[in-house]
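To whoever is on call:

I kicked off a structure prediction for a single chain this morning and the downstream step that reads the tokens threw a length-mismatch warning. I double-checked the sequence; it's 389 residues and nothing unusual in it as far as I can see. Pasting both halves so you can look.
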Amino acid sequence: MANRTVTQPPPPPTILRSRTRPWTVVPVLLVVAIIYSYGWNVTRIDVGQLITKVYLVRPLVRDLVRPDVLRWTPRLQTASASLNFTAEGAPAPGPSVQTGPRVVLSSEVVKPGSPLVIRGEGLAPSRPAAIYWKDQSGATAKALDLRTDAQGAFVVQLTVPDLIGEHHQIVVEVTLEGRQLRPSEAATLVSSRLVETLFLALMGTTIAVIFAVPLSFLGAKNLMTRNPAGTAIYYVVRTVFNITRSVEPLIMATVFAVWVGIGPFAGVLALALHSVASLGKLYSEQIESIDPGPIEAITATGASPLQVVRYAVVPQIIPPFIAFTVYRWDINVRMSTVIGMVGGGGVGFLLIQYINQLLWREAATAVWGITVVVAAMDYASAWIRERVV
């Protein structure tokens, strides 16, 4: 019988474990403890205040979770008549047949301080009413409270006040029975400012793209570092990008608000300047990461630098450029709500006004509006980027 040799498996490798020396761990733990103890004192952390002062934040939280969006308002019946301080622009006198609620004036051309007889007809009978002066700027002021008679009419005499402008209106509002659910004043203002915010971000992004695209080619290392002049331009452009990106848009909005005045124009300029640097850096890095094969092939044919960019670079960068631009618009929508707080326009300016006046329900309306718009923009930009990349 043949002898069989049995091969023994090799022993498992020996894993050398480093031995932790206690005298090295203790100093490290001591240093960490000192750092966090000092940080605790510097930041004045007091966990107990989270419990003892919770009553202070309850009204705020309560108002934030119930924004002022809809309100029950009384049903109103309105009628108006024009009033002029000069004959120019006044309607030509003549018979007019009107049905329904109407206001008739003793004279449509008057002077401040003169008496004016106001007659209402066709209104709801036996209901409280009010007369308002509305000047040329659109500002209104209550002139008189009254009540219609059983036939839905009234006659009063008032003295014409000194209003702004030449053309004005007398407005009569009659309060009817019942109430109706209508958007609140805060909801109306927030909606209009949210639209302003969207277009503020859109205009800022568009202006940034116009400047960032050509600058990105000057900031691309693979295109510019082929000669000393191009290398110098490359470093200058990248330095400008880095310096501009390091300044917060909030600071830029403050500067432009002083420069061009408080309003959305200042916000557009702040977003545009910061976005030029951010998009320029993203664009240039995308240009640097393109496939060098087409560039070498077209350069070998004797093409000019502009032809190389046109036929070898541009086709490779269009999809990512579009994706970066949409993403930047998304960022600018969020950022515009912040720069509005320093006078850059948009819903942020309205939000800081509500906070300063301690109108927490109105502020909650702005906060929830911002949340909805930002979430919608996030989903929309993600959907667009998925289809262009």
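Update from on-call: the warning came from a stale cache, not from the record. Cleared it. Sanity check on the structure: The beta strands are 70-84, 102-105, 115-121, 128-134, 140-147, 154-159, 167-183.
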